[in-house]
Amino acid sequence: MSFLVKIRNADVYVGGNKVLNSLSWSMGEKENWAIIGNNGSGKTTFMKLIFGELIPVYGGEVQWFGNKERIPLAEVREKIGYVSAEYQTNYDRPALGWEVVASGHFSSIGLHEEVTQKQKEAAFDSMEFLGIQYLSQTPYRQMSYGEARRVLLARAMVHRTRLMILDEPCAGLDIPTRENFLESLEKLSRKRTRMIYVTHRIEEIMPCFTHVLYLKNGEIFKQGRKEAMMNSETLSNALDYPLTVQENSNRYYATSCQ
Predict the structure, then answer these.
(1) pLDDT band for position 258 (50/70/90)?
(2) Beta strands of the chain (E only): which ranges?
(3) CA-to-CA distance for 248 and 202, rounded, in angstroms?
(4) Is residue 240 exposed (0-12), middle (13-18) or buried (19+ Cβ within 10 Å)?
(5) What is the tens place of the pLDDT at every residue in 165-193?
(6) Rounded mean pLDDT, 21-39
(7) Which of 5, 42, 69, 189 could bond 208 through an S-S bridge, CB–CB 3.0 to 4.6 Å?
(8) Pick from 132, 161, 190: which residue ends a domain?
(9) Is the pLDDT of residue 161 over 90?
(10) How does pLDDT run across 126-135, given as a tens digit for each residue?
(11) Angle between helices 175-188 and 145-156 (to 10 degrees)
(12) Average pLDDT, the chain
């Protein structure tokens, strides 16, 4: 099987501090991964490594989309979408909903280039797919927090994204808005797009996710098929807190067992 991402012996430093330690991991082309860990475990740094925003040192390497040779980062990013609460805060340009989505063609905040008819149609198609076409003419700054998050999801998938990185995308969403967003991901999984989903809430891991990786202190604590990873002992040890995991309708929930 070809790979979407392959990481070997990655040491990553941020601000002079070592955040990831000798990390090796690969993602197959038919897999969707959930990344779980406490705050400070290295989850966001791991995502930025996959996105190419950070690079490993001392001979570590990252490969993308079955390419064993080094390829231009711009070419990699054309196939990767990125959604996070942090990015939503940084998107501070005045724009209508469809313009925000269309800016994904240029990886820009706001539109600074002429949009072709084909690019505009792709933006509307992405919004229609997610059921948010009604937001196409709504100013971004007037949208609710959850509406803006779904618009950014449409933006991330506008250029036929092969891999979607979702870094705690439900942070700040209320329960109904969160469930609508998660249903959008479940729908997206039926397309060609594969996903990496970062969270510390296991109830956000939808049925479409096939694998789970636990990060702890900048290292891979455990990884494997979701069914083998979602148990009380593994989650408790990964998070250093006694928890009981329960399954309901192919979703998982954690309760304290103290």
Answers:
(1) low
(2) 3-14, 17-28, 33-36, 61-64, 80-84, 163-167, 194-199, 211-216, 219-225, 243-248, 251-256
(3) 12
(4) exposed
(5) 999 999 889 999 999 999 999 998 988 89
(6) 95
(7) 189
(8) 161
(9) no
(10) 999 999 999 9
(11) 10
(12) 91
Count of positions (residues) in the chain: 258
| 172 and 62 within one domain | yes
Residue pLDDT, tens place only, 213-245: 999 999 999 999 999 999 999 999 999 999 999
Question: Could you tell me the two tokens for 108?
Answer: 């820009």
As a whole number of angstroms, the distance between CA 242 and CA 110 comes to 45
Sequence letter at residue 133? Q
Q: Convert 62-75 to b/e letters by CB count within 10 Å (16 or more is b).
A: bbbbeeeeeeeeee
What is the widest separation between alpha-carbon atoms in the chain? 59
Paired strand residues for 62: 7
Is 86 within a domain?
no
Q: Which helix (H) or strand (E) holds 219?
A: strand 219-225
Integer Cα distance of 47 and 8 in angstroms: 15
Query: Which distant-in-sequence residues (6+ apart) come within 8 Å of 190 by Cβ?
Result: 208
User: What is the sign, positive or negative, of the torsion defined by CA atoms of 102, 103, 106, 112?
Assistant: positive
Q: Report CA-CA distances (Å) from 166 to 51, 113, 182, 248.
A: 11, 26, 11, 23
CA distance 37 to 39: 7
* Burial class, 58, CB count within 10 angstroms (exposed 0-12 / middle 13-18 / buried 19+): exposed
> What's the number of domains the chain is made of?
2
Q: 74 and 187, same structural domain? A: yes
